[in-house]
C-alpha cells in the first residue's frame, strides 16, 4: 500500500473526472453495438475537449503522469476522428470537378424552421435572399403553412408532409416537379421526396426529420427509412434535413450506406438549445443538420447562414449536376465558336 502514489485533492478530482468522461467517450466508439452507445457518440467532440482539460493536470502530478498521458492520447485520437467533419469548414471535395466541367450551379437551402419560431418574416426574407432553387424544411407546423403561403409565387412547386405537434417536412422549389403525382410523403410523414427538373436533369430531392437518439424514437425510425432510401430514390439525389444525428454517428452512416450517399463535410455545428447565443451555436453546437448527395451531384460549396429565430442554423449548399458520359464532349462541341 505504501507504494501507491499519494492522491491529493487536485489529483482526486482530475482522476475522477478523467475516468467519468472516458467511459461515454469509449462507449461511443461501440456505436454499432447498441443505440445507447450511438447516443454517446453525438457528444464525442465535446467529450474530447473535456477529457483533455481534466487529464492535463495529471501529467504534472507524480505517480499519475502515465494516466494523464494515456487520457490525452485518447482525447487526441477521438478528436481527430471528428475534426474534418465537424470543426473545419470550407469547400467540399467536388469543387475542382464542378469547375472543370463548367456546369450550371444550383442552390439548396436546408432549415429546421422551429415550429414556434417568433420571427417568421426573417425566415422568409432569408429564403428569398439565399437565391435557393430548392428548399428543404422541417418542423413545418400549421403556423408555418400560413407563413409559407406568402412565398408560393416564388416557389410554385411544393410538397408538404404534415404531422401533428411540431409539424412535418416540406420541399419548396422554383423549378418544376417531374411527374408531380409521384411526389411522396413516407415513413409517417418524416420523409418527403420530389423529383425536380434542373435544366433537363432529373434529381430526387428528399427532406428528412429524424427523432431524437436513444432512448427516444430515432432507433425505431432507422430501419424503415433505410429501406425507403434503398428503393424510392433515383441514381442522382440529395438528402437533406435535421437528422438529430452527427455525421460520424452510426445513424448517419446507415443512412448514407442505404442510399449510396456521400456526406457533405465541413458544414459545422448547427444546433444548440435556445436561448443560447448564435456565436456559441456555431462553435460548440451539434452538427445535426446534414446534406448527403449521390450520382451526378457534386457539391461546390457549403455554408451556414445567419440565425433566423430557430435553434438550428440554415445550411446553404451550392451544387452542380455533372453531364452523363459522352454529354461533355457534345456540350463542348456545341459551344465551340464557328470558323
Detailed description of the structure:
37% of the residues lie in helices and 22% in strands. By secondary structure, it is α+β, with helices and mostly antiparallel strands. It has two domains: 9-87; 95-321, 4-Layer Sandwich (Deoxyribonuclease I, Chain A), CATH 3.60.10. It has a six-stranded mixed beta sheet with strand order 3-4-2-1-12-11. The protein is elongated, with a radius of gyration of 23 Å. 42% of the residues are buried.
Give a quick summary of the entry.
This protein has helices spanning 9-28, 35-41, 44-55, 65-87, 95-101, 120-130, 142-148, 218-231, 250-259, 278-284, 327-335; strands spanning 105-112, 134-140, 157-161, 168-173, 184-186, 191-198, 201-209, 237-242, 262-263, 289-294, 297-304, 315-321.
Sheet with the most strands, sense and barrel status: 6 strands, mixed
CATH superfamily of the largest domain: Endonuclease/exonuclease/phosphatase
Averaged pLDDT: 90
Number of DSSP-assigned strands: 12
Rg, Å, rounded: 23 Å
Q: Counting H and I runs of at least 4 residues, what is the number of helices? A: 11
The CA-CA distance between the termini, in Å, is: 94 Å
Overall geometry: elongated
The total domain count is: 2
And the CATH topology of the largest domain? Answer: Deoxyribonuclease I, Chain A
Class per helix and strand makeup: alpha+beta
Q: What is the class of the largest domain in the CATH system?
A: Alpha Beta
**What's the helical proportion of residues?**
25-40%
H/E series, N to C?
Answer: HHHHHEHEHEEEEEHEHEHEEEH
Amino acid at each position: 500500500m505504501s507504494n501507491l502514489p499519494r492522491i491529493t485533492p487536485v489529483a482526486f478530482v482530475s482522476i475522477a473526472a478523467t475516468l467519468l468522461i472516458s467511459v461515454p467517450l469509449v462507449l461511443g466508439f461501440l456505436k454499432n453495438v447498441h443505440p445507447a452507445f450511438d447516443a454517446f457518440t453525438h457528444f464525442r467532440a465535446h467529450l474530447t475537449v473535456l477529457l483533455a482539460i481534466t487529464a492535463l493536470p495529471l501529467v504534472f502530478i507524480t505517480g499519475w503522469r502515465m494516466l494523464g498521458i494515456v487520457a490525452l492520447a485518447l482525447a487526441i485520437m477521438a478528436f481527430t476522428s471528428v475534426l474534418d467533419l465537424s470543426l473545419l469548414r470550407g469547400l467540399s471535395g467536388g469543387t475542382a470537378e464542378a469547375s472543370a466541367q463548367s456546369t450550371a450551379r444550383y442552390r439548396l437551402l436546408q432549415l429546421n424552421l422551429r415550429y414556434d419560431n417568433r420571427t417568421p418574416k426573417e425566415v422568409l426574407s432569408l429564403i428569398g435572399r439565399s437565391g435557393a432553387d430548392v428548399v428543404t424544411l422541417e418542423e413545418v407546423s400549421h403556423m408555418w403553412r400560413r407563413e409559407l403561403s406568402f412565398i408560393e409565387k416564388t416557389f410554385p412547386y411544393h410538397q408538404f408532409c404534415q404531422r401533428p405537434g411540431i409539424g412535418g417536412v416540406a420541399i419548396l422549389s422554383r423549378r418544376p416537379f417531374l411527374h408531380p403525382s409521384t411526389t411522396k410523403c413516407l415513413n409517417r410523414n418524416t420523409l418527403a421526396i420530389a423529383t425536380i427538373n434542373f435544366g433537363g436533369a432529373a434529381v430526387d430531392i428528399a427532406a428528412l426529420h429524424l427523432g431524437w437518439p436513444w432512448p427516444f424514437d430515432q432507433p425505431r425510425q432507422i430501419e424503415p427509412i433505410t429501406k425507403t432510401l434503398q428503393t424510392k430514390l433515383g441514381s442522382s439525389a440529395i438528402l437533406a434535413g435535421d437528422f438529430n444525428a452527427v455525421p460520424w454517428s452510426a445513424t448517419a452512416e446507415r443512412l448514407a450506406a442505404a442510399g449510396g450517399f456521400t456526406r457533405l463535410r465541413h458544414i459545422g455545428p448547427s444546433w444548440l438549445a435556445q436561448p443560447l447565443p448564435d456565436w456559441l451555436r456555431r462553435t460548440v453546437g451539434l452538427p445535426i443538420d446534414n446534406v448527403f448527395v449521390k450520382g451526378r451531384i457534386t457539391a461546390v460549396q457549403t455554408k451556414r447562414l445567419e440565425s433566423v429565430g430557430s435553434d438550428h442554423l440554415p445550411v446553404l449548399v451550392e451544387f452542380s449536376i455533372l453531364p452523363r458520359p459522352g454529354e461533355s464532349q457534345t456540350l463542348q462541341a456545341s459551344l465551340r465558336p464557328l470558323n
